[in-house]
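step=predict obj=LLM class flavin-dependent oxidoreductase n=347
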Amino acid sequence: MTTPVPASDRPALRFATGTTVKDFAAYTEWLRVAEDCGYAMLTTGDSQSLWADPYVALTFAAQHTTVPRLGVTVSNPMTRHPAVAASASSALQHISGDRFVLGISSGDSALRNIGLRPARVAETEEYVTAVRDLTAGRAARWQGADLELRWPPRRTPVWVAAEGPRTLRMAGRVADGVVLSNSLTREAYARNLGHIAEGAAEAGRDVADLEVWCMANVVPAATEQDGIDQVRSVLAGTANHVFRFGTEGKGLPDALRPAVEELKRRYDSAHHASPETAAHNAALVDELGLTGFLAAHSTVAGPLGHCVERLHEIAEAGVRNLVVAQFVPEPLAFMRTFADRIAPHFR
């Protein structure tokens, strides 16, 4: 058993965790355990073809929890009009006691699975601004139309999931927070935070006023490689998402660019975020020589002591908030182990 390091000696971390909902009876127990384990926020995604609607799921979560924040990580501008998203978000704020946050990105599996294109950066910026305005009780504009909620809305923080320089700067200009993927190295986090800061400065804002959360696969296992092997399909999905619009400004070595382009060409979005059915996607990262690079930027794996040290390295690089993914065989046992054996080192 590892011994917690005093909080005064090393930086603290705040942890969220999430799941995708397919069985509400199982979700009831998941929520109970997650709240008991003390996670700061509980999340789910928005991909209608793959799992349950996030607003329904988080309304259910609001009724079965009392303390943690509840977040969609993330939705998109293409499947929900901003007035619809703002109204649903306001309703969730009323029900949850203002615990809800809405994350937005350009859109990935939700769109690929129904044949829609992703939103452009300018569209996403306009959408985020409209949702923020509407939930704050202000009039908004969307694609030339004037919008207004004529019932009492409730202010909702709107975050942006961003990877490339343009989207990161946009998030700095208009979002309340940012969700980062592939940012668990010192270099990647500093680069991405710098772009966010540039955007914040353009709007007369301070980057310190934005919440920045990093996605992380945490996989306790006998060895680091054993843990990485369990999430190879997730590594493929992250790479497909992060690099889908291009590789410039994202820290990808030139030697790996052809491999990433091949991965994007062959990735199967029908099995996105589903390790149990995604053998094809899992095989791609090994075949294309991408496993090591992708794991270093997104994954903490191995024996518990090694996971703790790796998380300390991430905290010392400046990261303060982690959304811990649950691509593990037994999520309830994982949450309890994480809460008992890992989280105490970072308080």
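step=describe
The mean pLDDT is 95.
step=end
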